[in-house]
Structures are given as structure tokens and as C-alpha cells.
From TrEMBL:
Domain (Mur ligase central) ranges: 110-288
Enzyme Commission number: 6.3.2.9
Gene that this sequence comes from: murD
Protein name: UDP-N-acetylmuramoylalanine--D-glutamate ligase
Example GO BP: regulation of cell shape
Any one GO molecular-function label of the UniProt entry: UDP-N-acetylmuramoylalanine-D-glutamate ligase activity
Length: 447
């Protein structure tokens, strides 16, 4: 045990290890503590950089002499050690909050229940194509802290989850994007949608008149929250229904970008990413790109040549006329709905994992119209089975990606789609949603 820690980092995954590297590079006394065994990759990094740590539990005197805790986003505020720290008056912050202290880069921050990975990746693609010295971080790729420590950029596209936003107090987004608010992670918010929504609204915390806020006025919960929130920053709306406002909207089957007196457009058919949800994502990224100074020609080019994000409606293979699609990132009801709704062939649906308080009734209509069989992939499949036993004629339970893919392949016929869209978190059987998606793809390629 380190004898006199000043900064304690809870969790030694990508976020925690990145924070530790940044803290050490800035000369801070730091100690890393993880309740679980630390992944070998991160353990070796801590050892090589001389950063003291413990794993498999927290020491009884861990909080002694501690002035601040940097908490990994997967650790809830209700964890006993976190509650104890708060009771002792110790600051508990996120890795994003911590890293922001050590960079003067412009920060374009994207949140939402669905679409934030696609939007963040699309925005970074635009910035990179335009030649900006841009980083991609947050809930995607290498951690923000790791990048600030190693090769700090001029501008960042930051994907921010509600868990990361919860740990912020002084952080300020230069441009904030709120895509939507639909039920997700309600187990972390006392099953109260408004508490979850309030967490999402922290994306605009501390913004001033010099900053920008992009939001979707078609989203019911976002509209309700914003109606009761004073907005002092520059505001840009995206909508498929309203027209004429600053931001982006649809007119004559074209996206019209209207930003600070400059207007340009492109047809919906030109978008690389099709589907209604991807129109919103493209609009948001396009508005943000224009605000950061990217030329309209570059924005149009990037919106038309962008490649799908891994694990988001990713085509894997077509085997004997059966298409396999990996949407492992569909970890909630709304994103699973979009995945199912976008299919125009009969679906063998692979779903399951850790239920986050899901209301499966919201999927009934789309499931009735598209799904012919359900393959449950999880340790406890009872909520799924109970929800769909009277709706889906064939339901099978599995506990590995390989078994799920084999079962789906056995049930599928030519011109069917096997769709992995779990609607649940992955941590019962997999390391994360990426691990789940990659195991799914490996199993498909092994057929």
C-alpha cells in the first residue's frame, strides 16, 4: 500500500490507467486501486511507469491523506468506498474532468442515449480530413487523459456517457451536442428517467455566451428538459420536422445547414449513413464541424464517404444468403428498436445480457413485424423470455457467442438477417460490448 496518496484512482481500465499516466506526468502523488484483478495490459503499464497500485480489493486505509478521487465511469456513486469518500469531504471526479485541467484544446462534446459513437466518429472524420490536429476520446478509443498526457491535440471530439458527465463540476464544453434522451441505465438512476435526463443535461454545465449547444428538438424528453433550462450560449437545433431555424433541418428531401448566416445543403440520398437516426447524427456532426471552421465542401464529402463504426449495424458476412449484422453497441431498448426497424428482411434476433430496467413493451410492434426467432444470449434470460414468449414463436437460450450464432444459423433461411442487437449491457458474459461484438464476428466467420 502506498503510504501517502494524494490522488487516488478507482478502477484500472482504460480510463483509470490513462488518468494515472497523466497524474504521474504532472508530478502528482497517485495511487491506483481496483476492486477486481487488473487487466495484464494495464497492470504492465502501471508497473513500467512506476505507479503504485493494488488489485482484488481496496485497502482499509485507502482514503487516508487523500484529497481527490478520480473514479472510473463504471463505478456507481452508491459504491461504499465512494460514499465514504464523499462523506469525508473528498472530491470525487471523472477522468474527463481531471484531464480537462491540463489542456487548452477546444472540446466538442457529444452525448445522448443513442448515436453518440457514430456522431463523434463522424465529426472526428471531418476534422481529420480537414487537416485539424484533432483527437477522438471519451467513451471511445484511447482515454482523454492518456491523450492529454501523451500527444495533446488542438481540438477533441469527446463522446461522453451519463456516467462521465456525473463526475464533472468545472468542466466546460466549447461545443455541446445532445442527440436524444431515451430510457437507459435506469438502474443507476433509481429507475427515474428524469434523473437520467438531468445527468445528460450536464453536457451544457458551465457554458457561456461564447460556447455553442446543438440539440434535437424532435426529441420529447430533451425538449421537456430544455424548456425549463436557461440557455445563455449560442443554440443550434436539428430537426426532421421544423424548418427555418439555425442549425439543420429537412426541406425537399435535402438537409439544409443554416449556421451563422451561411446556408448549404445536400440530399439525404448522398449520406453515407442511411436511416432516420443517422440523418440526426449527420446533421449534428455537420453543424459542429461548421462551427469549428470546416469548409462546407469538406463537410459534404465526409458525410458522403464515412464508413460505418464497428459494432454499430456493421455488416459481417453473407453466408448462403443469410446476412449477419453486428450491432453489439445497441445496449438499450431505443437503439435495439432502431436496429430492428432498419431491417427489411425477416430477422433472427440475438439479444440479452444485463437488463438495465428495460421496458420491452416498447419493442412489441417492431418485433411483431420483423422478428421470426429470438436467440437469448445471457446468464439470466428470464426477463427476455417472459417479455416475448407470447410474441415470438421461437425462443432459444444460449450462453456464448458461438452457441448463439450456431443456433441462429440453424434457424435462418436464405434472405433472412441474423442481427445482434442485445438491448442489454454485456458484462455478464463479456468484457464489454466490443468483446461481445468481436466474439460474434469470430463465430460468424467460423461457420
Amino acid at each position: 500500500m502506498y503510504s501517502n496518496p494524494k490522488t487516488v484512482i478507482l478502477g484500472a481500465g482504460e480510463s483509470g490507467t490513462g488518468a494515472a499516466l497523466l497524474a504521474r506526468s504532472r508530478g502528482l502523488e497517485v495511487f491506483v486501486s481496483d476492486q477486481s484483478p487488473i487487466n495484464e495490459k494495464y497492470r504492465n503499464e502501471l508497473i513500467q511507469n512506476g505507479i503504485p497500485f493494488e488489485e482484488g480489493g481496496h485497502s482499509a486505509n485507502l482514503l487516508e491523506n487523500t484529497t481527490e478521487i478520480i473514479k472510473s465511469p463504471g463505478i456507481p456513486d452508491s459504491a461504499p468506498l465512494v460514499k465514504s469518500a464523499i462523506d469525508k469531504g473528498i472530491r470525487v471526479i471523472s477522468e474527463i474532468e481531471f484531464a480537462s485541467r491540463y489542456t487548452n484544446a477546444s472540446k466538442i462534446c457529444i452525448t445522448g442515449s443513442n448515436g453518440k459513437t457514430t456522431t463523434t466518429s463522424l465529426l472526428w472524420h471531418m476534422m481529420h480530413t480537414a487537416g485539424l490536429n484533432a483527437g477522438l476520446a471519451g467513451n471511445i478509443g484511447n482515454s482523454f487523459a492518456r491523450q492529454v498526457a501523451g500527444q495533446d491535440y488542438d481540438v477533441y471530439a469527446l463522446e461522453l456517457s451519463s456516467f462521465q458527465l456525473d463526475g464533472m463540476s468545472r468542466f466546460r464544453a466549447d461545443t455541446a451536442i445532445l442527440l436524444n434522451i431515451t430510457p437507459d441505465h435506469l438502474d443507476r438512476y433509481e429507475h427515474d428517467l428524469m434523473k437520467y435526463a438531468a445527468s445528460k443535461m450536464r453536457i451544457i454545465r458551465n457554458q457561456t455566451a461564447d460556447n455553442a449547444f446543438i440539440w434535437c428538438s424532435d426529441d420529447e424528453v430533451s425538449s421537456k428538459m430544455i424548456k425549463n433550462t436557461p440557455l445563455n450560449q449560442q443554440v443550434f437545433r436539428i430537426s426532421l420536422h421544423d424548418q427555418g431555424h439555425e442549425g439543420a433541418f429537412i426541406e425537399d428531401n435535402k438537409i439544409i445547414f443554416n449556421i451563422k448566416g451561411e446556408t448549404f445543403s445536400m440530399t439525404i440520398e448522398e449520406l453515407a449513413l442511411q436511416g432516420k437516426h443517422n440523418i440526426y447524427n449527420s446533421m449534428a456532426a455537420g453543424v459542429a464541424a461548421k462551427l469549428v471552421g470546416i469548409r462546407k465542401e469538406t463537410i459534404r464529402q465526409c458525410l458522403s464517404d464515412f464508413q460505418h463504426v464497428e459494432h454499430r449495424l456493421e455488416h459481417v458476412a453473407n453466408i448462403h444468403g443469410i446476412e449477419f449484422i453486428n450491432d453489439s453497441k445497441a445496449t438499450n431498448i431505443n437503439s435495439a428498436w432502431w436496429a430492428l426497424e432498419s431491417q427489411n428482411k425477416p430477422v433472427i434476433w440475438i439479444a440479452g445480457g444485463i437488463d438495465k430496467g428495460n421496458d420491452y413493451t416498447k419493442l412489441y410492434d417492431v418485433v411483431k413485424s420483423r422478428v421470426k426467432a429470438l436467440i437469448c444470449l445471457g446468464v439470466d434470460n428470464r426477463p427476455l423470455v417472459e417479455a416475448f414468449k407470447d410474441i415470438i414463436p421461437v425462443i432459444t437460450e444460449t450462453r456464448s457467442a458461438a452457441d448463439a450464432v450456431n443456433a441462429a444459423y440453424y434457424l435462418a433461411q436464405k434472405d433472412d438477417v441474423v442481427l445482434l442487437a442485445p438491448a442489454c449491457a454485456s458484462f455478464d458474459l463479456f468484457e464489454n460490448y466490443e468483446d461481445r461484438g468481436r466474439q460474434f464476428k469470430a463465430a460468424v466467420h467460423a461457420l
